[in-house]
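Appendix B. Raw example, untouched.
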Amino acid sequence: MLPTNQTNSNDKKVSYSNEEKLEQTLKAMQGVGEIKIYFYYGQMTSDIDENNLFSQYFRGTDQGAQKDVTGMLIVSQGADDIFVKNEIRAVVSQVMQLPMHRIIIVPMEK
């Protein structure tokens, strides 16, 4: 796994989101190429205001409330190859502890 924070050339800490850390790791796999990952967050673990659902969906958290990742969309250059697509799905399923049917993988536009 990649560390949460890394130091750049200016000795400033750079913080990576979970999506970015997973993207960096998957890029290292043979045949994956460029990749973009989007997490889908399911039910909130605490009560929330119904009016904020849409914005909270994209932010992933509400102040103090944590959401569990319940699905993923992965866009990859290598997803044209069924072997690469299946390899990505298997790795992500294991790492994220998600069932394979909750992971959608599509080819990236060229």
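End of appendix B.
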